[in-house]
Amino acid sequence: MPLSSELFKRSGLLSENLEHYEMRPQQIAMAEAVEGALESEEHLIVEAGTGVGKSLAYLIPSILWAQKENKLVVISTYTKALQTQLFVKDLPFLKRILGKDLRYALCMGSENYLCIRKATANRDKTLFKSKSKNKEVEEIYKWIDTTGTGLISDLEFIPDRAVWDKFSREYDACRGRKCPFSSDCFFIASRKAHAESHVLIVNHALLFADLVSENRILPEFDCLILDEAHMVEDVASDFFGCGMGSSALGFLMDSIREFLKASDTGTFRGFLFEEIALIEAAVHDASVSAEKFFTNAGNILGGEERTARFDKNDYDCEDLKKSMLDLSEALYKCAGSVKKIGEKNSSVSDFQETLNMYAKRCERSIANMDFIFNEERDGYVYWSEVRKLKKRSEYSFYASPVEISDKMNTFLFERIRPVILTSATLSTAGKFDFIKKRLGLDSCKELLVDSPFDYRNKVLLYVPEKGADPNAAPQVFKNDVKDHIVKIYRVMGGRMFALFTSYEMLNDVAASIGETDPDIHLLKQGELPRYMLLDMFKKSRKSILMGTLTFWQGVDVSGDALECVIITKLPFSVPSDPLNAARIEAIRQKGLNPFYEYQLPEAVIMFKQGFGRLIRGHADRGVVAVLDPRIRSRSYGKYFLDAIPKCRVTGDISHIGEFFQSSTQ
Question: Can you spell out the DSSP letters for 386-451?
């Protein structure tokens, strides 16, 4: 008898333990599909519309399977919000109703853990000249006496990167079981809990870091569930490539300098004066070489934010590589000369291992430079990025695979079975062909279940009858968007998301509204951290929250705090973006149409994500306004309209007010 007939039925455990529980056929269908995939060890892809309750639909069968078979299931998410929901809400609830022997854990990257050895070595030292940083150090030491996890996320504040670096575990400096503090080590304790779990919660970044490192991070597991699977390709592309940048290299140089200036190093100078002096000279030379390299990059790329392919002939990294190699050799030489000191103790061992750690990091930087500037690999695109910071510009260079399908097969689908992929947005035109092709998923079971929400009565879709084409008349289009946002605000009075596809347009529209309608309260992405903006938005009820693509997904504002979502422009990716351009070229070379094969389905999936911000519960209602006229004027507009649940559609803005009046009667 399928588990769904017992647990999900009207008189089952969920009904008995969840207030206002409603039996949903879509949730039962998904749970049975997951159960079947686990038993048959077949890959499965599931699109579950908003409100299906997909987390319980995959958690319950996977928990029962893991307990019965003594298996480990890894569940990977893209957003921290979903990860928190699973770990803080869903799993404790299921442990209570399914049995106390359920074991689960949250797996974080090792740099998130406190290293007791480093904390002990740094205690009672003045670590920084900055008073604010030393204050953070004091707060961390108070926290150390009370923390049960050693995780940075348990701190009541976000420490400066340089401060946390004095306390965090470093994978290339960890002694493991040889460490004198291993019996109290938070990381080792977490690894033990991970290996003994039935369910392990991770994020996509950590998952792919594990896959490309030949499973050195996570324990061996038996099933993988990829939630928010629509983001897998982007994350995987990052981890199957490599990068190097001015900030990362500068941080490495500063860390070595700080290490050499520390009081601990001073105690070794009498024994290792020449070796330490050699490192200091090498750090200086490497910094000078890096400054020359990135100054040249600035002259070529400019200081404004941009991404673009680059000509390798414009960049000579040989001096930088040579200076980094000299630095690495100087560090290794000093580490090898520690025998001069005589008696071995923990302080000597720490000093030696830190030298070796920095030497290895220099070697990795050299390897990345070779990969990016001196090798030409088929199937990779080489591109640069300029980010404008407060006082300077940051320059980075990357090598990314154009397609990841083969790598996904090699690293994931052929090694792990089953893999279950799910999201509210995976299909296009009612099929999974696009996402399967992009991810290299050749053979799998499929299930598409729609949302149980009443969109026909709860949602009004407003699409203006006319408007300027954003490509043919971009400035007129921006003015139209601004005017529509203001008009809708005059009806709504707030409780609005305005979703943009670029910072430039967001800032231009916000500035225009600020000039002509200063009474409208705008919350802009970039002004504050996302969680703070969302908190302010929920409390104010009179605001417009303006965000780019990070606000199109993973944002959950339920109830009447959000009753209008404005999609300003159809979310086509920028064709000139280096990775997108390379993907488009690769598709065209195969004799296919890149617009219909890649650009359109990708945009449709993101459009569905944006639309999905509005209705998060049965009681929710509201308006989605799509201000891009191409959804009406172009033949491909029907792909977007067909992709969302059926709801009332209007081109008359006055119907917005009427909708809210009628829906409250």
Answer: EEE-SSSEEEEEEEEES--HHHHIIIIITTSS-EEEEES---BTTB-HHHHHHHT--S-EEEEE--
**CATH number, domain with residue 52:** 3.40.50.300
Tokens of 361: 């990091």
Nearest Cα residue to 234 out of 398, 79, 77, 404: 404
Q: For position 4, what pLDDT does the model report? A: 56
Note the pLDDT tens digit of each residue in 566-589. 999 999 998 889 999 999 999 999
DSSP symbol at 618: T
Task: Give the count of domains, the chain.
Answer: 4
Instruction: Clarify whether residues 508 and 616 are in a common domain.
Output: yes
Domain containing residue 215: 3-103+197-236+404-449
- The verdict on 508 and 611 lying in the same domain is yes
Q: Is the torsion defined by CA of 587, 593, 599, 602 positive or negative?
A: negative
Q: Are residues 314 and 270 in the same domain?
A: yes
Phi-psi region of 526 (alpha: psi -120 to 50; beta: other; left: phi over 0): left
The per-residue pLDDT for 663 is 61
Report which secondary-structure segment, H or E, holds 455: helix 455-458
**In contact, 290 and 321? CB cutoff 8 Å:** no
| Residues in the chain, total | 665
What is the edge-to-edge ordering of all strands in the sheet holding 104-106? 104-106, 199-203, 73-77, 223-226, 419-423, 44-48, 445-449
Q: Which two tokens stand for residue 365?
A: 């930087």
Rg, the chain, Cα only:
27
Which stretches does DSSP call E strand in 100-161? 104-106
On average, the pLDDT of the chain sits at 91
Is 212 buried (19+), middle (13-18) or exposed (0-12) by CB count in 10 A? middle
Q: Point out the least confidently predicted range of 214-228, 256-270, 616-630.
A: 256-270
Task: State pTM to two decimals.
Answer: 0.89
What tokens appear for 308 in the block?
């673009």
Query: Which stretches of 229-268 are DSSP H helices?
Result: 232-239, 246-261, 263-266
Q: Is the peptide bond before 418 cis (omega within 30 degrees of 0)?
A: yes
